Amino acid sequence: MSERASVVRIEGLTKHYGPLVALDSVSLDIHAGEIFALLGPNGAGKTTLIGCVSGLVIPTAGAATVLGWDTRRDYRRTRRVVGLVPQEINFDPFFTVEETLRFQAGYFGVKLEEAKLTEILEALDLGRKRKAGTRELSGGMKRRLLIGKALVHDPKVLFLDEPTAGVDVELRRDLWAYVRRLRERGTTIVLTTHYLEEAQELADRVGVIDRGRLLLVEEKRRLLARLGQKTLRLRLREPIAALPAGLAEAGAVLAEGGRVVEITRPGEAELGSELASALGAGLAVRDVDTLRSDLEEIYVQLLKKGGA
Amino acid sequence: MIGLEARRAGEAERVERRGWSGFRGPWTLFEKEVRRFLRVPGQTIVSPVITTVLYLVVFGYALGGRLREVNGIPYLSFIVPGLVMLGVISNAFLNTSSSMFIMKLQETVVDLLVSPLRYGEIVAAMVGAASVRALLVGLLTWAVAIVAQGEVLLVHLGYAIAFPLLTSVGLSALGLFVGIWAEKFEHVNLVPTFVITPLTFLGGVFYDVGQLPGVFATLSHFNPVLYLVEGFRFGLLGTSAIEPAFSLAGLVVFDVGLVLLCMGILRSGWKLRS
Question: What is the pTM of this model?
Answer without folding.
Answer: 0.84
